[in-house]
Structure formats: structure tokens, C-alpha cells
Amino acid sequence: MKHWTMLAALAVALGLWAQTGLAEQTRPKPRPDVGAAALADDTALPAELSSNPPLEVIQTSATAAPTRAVPAPQEARDPSRGAVTNLPLPRYVSLKTNEGNARRGPGLTHRIDWMFTKAGMPLKLTAEHENWRRVEDAEGLGGWMHYSLLSGVRTVLIKGDLVDFHTSARPDATIAFRAEGGVIGRVMECDGTWCRINIDGEKGWAPIAALWGVAPGEVID
Known about the structure:
A hairpin with a 5-residue loop joins β5 and β6. The N and C termini lie far apart (162 Å). By secondary structure, this protein is an alpha+beta fold. The protein has 2 helices and 15 strands. Among the domains are: 61 residues, Roll (SH3 type barrels), CATH 2.30.30.40; 66 residues, SH3 type barrels, CATH 2.30.30.40. Strands 8, 11, 12, 13, 14 and 15 form a 6-stranded antiparallel beta sheet that branches. Strands 6-5-4-1-7 form a 5-stranded antiparallel beta sheet, with no helix packed on it. The chain has a two-stranded antiparallel sheet with strand order 2-3. Helix content is 14%, strand content 33%.
């Protein structure tokens, strides 16, 4: 009887031991301690312990948007100045040759509207385009002429029927000579009111109002 009691106790002990061993095998093992410092940097953790997947760093370079050059605003051209020479407009010039064609437009393809036939004739220049100049005579007739036909020499056309030329720029000065209307003379000087003119070697002063080819108030040295 005693022998069977010991065997029963041994069987119970073996059963308890088996349950304990199985529990130890199935119990989850604690995670290794990685420390606070390692947890502060995910790169120090094993891949399976990292709470965040590794970040992929992509370097980009800023690409400037293409820009279009914007031309600087052009200043409005002064209409009182020639587009080619920048000389004052209108201004007076003279015919260089004995014959000059005035065309309807600035070019040889334009028809001839007028022909000047007297060298030295004063002309009013009113516009410029490349090698062409628009001119008109005392009656407003003219057109576009090539600049090579024109001269900067200043001349005048006598207005009226007969003009007195004085020895000085005074109406009471001695009369040096008289000239008929339509005669052309070369300008020597002007003081804004009177001009000294050379006509075939004769020199004298006449009021600007009696001459065509000089602007009122113009001074010529």
C-alpha cells in the first residue's frame, strides 16, 4: 500500500514538471534592451525593431523657370528732330545741282511729282527716311529727294516785287542795292530780325520778313 502511494505522488510530480517546461517554452521572451540612446535614432535599431521605415533622401536642385528677355522701353522720338540726322525739323537747305527730282515717296520706285531746276534754290526740309529727305519750296511744292542732291549751304529767295538791301541792319540805313522777287541770294549772317545777304557779289541787310529760307527769329553766324 505504501509503495502504490509513492508511485502516485511521483506521477503527479512528473505531470506538474511537464506543464512547467511547456509553459517556459511557449512564454514570449522579452525584447532585448536597446537603450534610450538607440531609440532616439532609428538608424541604430535593427531593421525589424525600427518603428519607422528608412527614409529615402532625394536631393533636388532648384531649376529656375525660363525667363524671357523684355526689351527696354524705347523713348518716343522727338518729332522736332530728324529720324536720321537728329537735326532740327523743319530746317532749310538748298539744291546742290541744277536739276533735282522730287518723288512721291522715299525711293526710286516712286513717281516723280516735281523737278527743281535752279541750283542754290532754298528748300524747307520737313522729314527724313534713310537716304531720302522730304522738301518743299516757297510755294509748298516738292517731295522726296535723295540727300546727295541737297546742300547745307543757306540761301534765301527774295519775296515781293522789289526789296531794298541796306548797309546795316536798320530800316533807315543807306540802301546798298535792290533785288527783284524770285532772286536767290546766299546768307552771310542773321541776327534774328535782319539778314546780311550776298547776291552776285553785292552785300546788304534785309528784314527776314522779306526773305524765304530763314525762319523768323533765327540767328545765323
